[in-house]
Description:
heterodimer; A: 668 residues; alpha/beta; Rossmann fold; FAD/NAD(P)-binding domain; 4 domains; five-stranded parallel β-sheet; 23% strand; B: 193 residues; mainly alpha; Fumarate Reductase Iron-sulfur Protein, Chain B, domain 2; 2 domains; 11 helices
Amino acid sequence: xxxxxxxxxxxxGSNIAGTVDCEEVARWAGQNIRDVAVARDYKFxxxxxxxQLIEDDIKKEGLTRVVVAACSPHLHEKTFxxxxxxxxxxxxxxxxxxxxxxxxxxxxxxxxxxxxxxSLVSAAAERVKHQQPLEPFFVKVNPATxxxxxxxxxxxxxxxxxxxxxxxxxxxxxxxxxxxxxQFDKTFPTLDCSACILTPxxxxxxxxxxVTMFTYSELEEVSGSVGSFKVKIRKRARYVDYxxxxxxxxxVEKCPRKVVDDDFEAGLGYRKxxxxxxxxxVPRVPVIDTANCxxxxxxxxxxxxxxxxxxxxxxxxxxxxxxxxxxxxxxxTGWKLFDCKRLPNYGFGRLANVYTNLEFERLCNAAGPTNGxxxxxxxxxxxxxxxxxxxxxxxxSRYNSFCSAVCCMAAMKFGHLVLEKTNAEVYSFYIDMxxxxxxxxxxxxxxxxxxxxxxxxxxxxxxxxxxxPEEQGKLIVQYEDTLLGEQKRLPVDMVILMGAMExxxxxxxxxxxxxISCSMAGWFTERHxxxxxxxxxxxxxxxxxxxxxxxxIPAAVAQGAAAAARISGMxxxxxxxxxxxxASIDEESCSGCRVCNNMCPYNAIEFDETKNVSRVITAMCKxxxxxxxxxxCDAISGAHFKNExxxxxxxxxxxxxxxxAAATEGGR
Amino acid sequence: MSGKTTLKKxxxxxxxxxxxxxxxxxxxxxxxxxxxxxxxxxxDMDHTPRAIINMIRAGEREQVLSSNMxxxxxxxxxxxxxCPQEIPITDIxxxxxxxxxxxxxxxxxxxxxxxxxFTGYVDKYGxxxxxxxxxxxxxxxxxxxxxxxxxMGMAMFSRGRMALTPSKIKNIGQLQAIxxxxxxxxxxxxxxx
Lengths: 668, 193
């Protein structure tokens, strides 16, 4: 018996109807496509009335197949499948064709657009007739979660989940958790001490019974899928026995080798070759920096080992790979600072008293290299005048087009600290002031009252070449005061560059491991920029914090909590639905050649030695089709993407091509 | 970032953009003032490059084309190389210079004469001819100042920095063909606006 197909063409307000004649498409489909019982156009198919249309037609007209020509299936495939299911039709007998992103939004020619939609609708109609009813299956959700990144976003996600009673594995690349926030002195706009609000969370995570920390460790490999991921963690050798070490710090104190700390102290301070990054580090277990350790370089010294009261130093320790099983993954991998040397006209690295924002954070931190005294590189001179340059490496199409979102506020925080701690005048050189969150504008007003100078103009250059007597021995900031339209020079003692937040250098690689993609700028791509900001296109993988885009601490914390809430929901539910769009192997046809075994990117094919055939592990199959194409015996088929479905789709799209039309008439 | 702009045909900004290679970047200006801060001639200008860009946007055609900044520009390309939006500012200034000459919009400035004398020699020989430029320009425009330039000219000459006769590049005909074609295209564009 012939199928009865219902065709529904959505106007999407004017989104589609603006450049596609939807009425004409529906009329044409009703007259020209075989087996079409109903063809309608409607203003908003996704509205409840639109869905009702489908349900009523299934019941009254006895539709056996449904085609919806509307937006991307990413947005509404579930909606229309549900509508079919409500009316008693298997949801996999519904097919969506995207005529918005693929036609109306990328095209101005209404006639051509309408013709293309006809072809797409024809393709969908031919294909849907060959679709088969499928039943989704469910997998259990492992209640353990992997959080990658121990900055504030990752810590928040970890604590929310651990407090809810679920096990969390927290992986951090550095020797201590804490992230960039641990480096900061104060936080805007409230000016509370960064360490005072961060360290309680750090120690809570460190002591939580549900949290297992892997510091100085990195994610090696991810396999499996939502609900049951298998991950491998590389625990880098610390050369200190984690269980024996009491964190007393004698080894650090006695280590004779002092090196510049380019990481935590941003190059302003020193650390030892065996070290913890900062006093409140969690865990307190130090690591040995082998590149700088005298013993590792020359075979002599061993002071740390000699002084250790618990005999915890292990020079022969090796990296260790730990395998874990988790249900969900949170990526909270943060950011790195723009290399300010890339803008040579600002002189960073060449002119001593030009600082980056991270350097200045350390400089005014009470636990920093100068004990919080704001002094020049000579370590003693207090600056008389400080210039802060915004947008260094951001809002710059040569480096990063995006706005780093936090620098306006951070610059004002710096301004406040300079005014509070010194007698210096502070000048902020901004392009646009963007204090746009709760209490931020008030903070701006406060700094105006405190006498910080705000100059609208991106600095052209910082130089030590004096032209006038008062410029001798100073750094001269040259700029245009754009509100006055005048070119000016300002002699200062210190320049702070507000370097951009950049994606981590290995963000793309990390994304690949977890099956998610990055934006052009390099930030992780969320599932929906507004309505699904922490989920990703890969089920079970979530993003939180700056790795998703520049943001400040409150926003990063909110995202960490949001990701945890999503995961908690899944764990409470206990199971997650898996699309039945998977490959299956016909055992009769399988020759046992095992070609597919190694080709599967998800390790979802196992080999049955007794029967000498391969078998798909459905829970792990993503339906990618690699094995289907590879099988030399045609023994594998991909549900929902069977050959006859794809051939029908191609013939449908070529409805107006003569030879194909003839073939359709004659055969099949 | 597509580089595609939709501007009304025939407006001043559209003309400037259409007449400048890479000119479509102009619409991305965020008025940061890096150009204005960088310009070595900034002190001599009635408007900074940033202000000129904003005036082009605002359609202030007469003000732009009569500005002395067009002629104060020394083509150092500092503004262009530092512009965070990669706007070819120097080239846009050249476009405005051409418009200014074509429409005789410039206020009394002998910089126009200097520019024309200069390009005249380039057309003829394929490179600048300093001695001819200095004498020709000064004789025509400021003969009294000619004498004052004498010692500097002598010094340059004695150090081999200036030749008394022009030198022509090889195959000057090819360059002249290019210039002729460019003038044709320019004239067509001007007529077609």
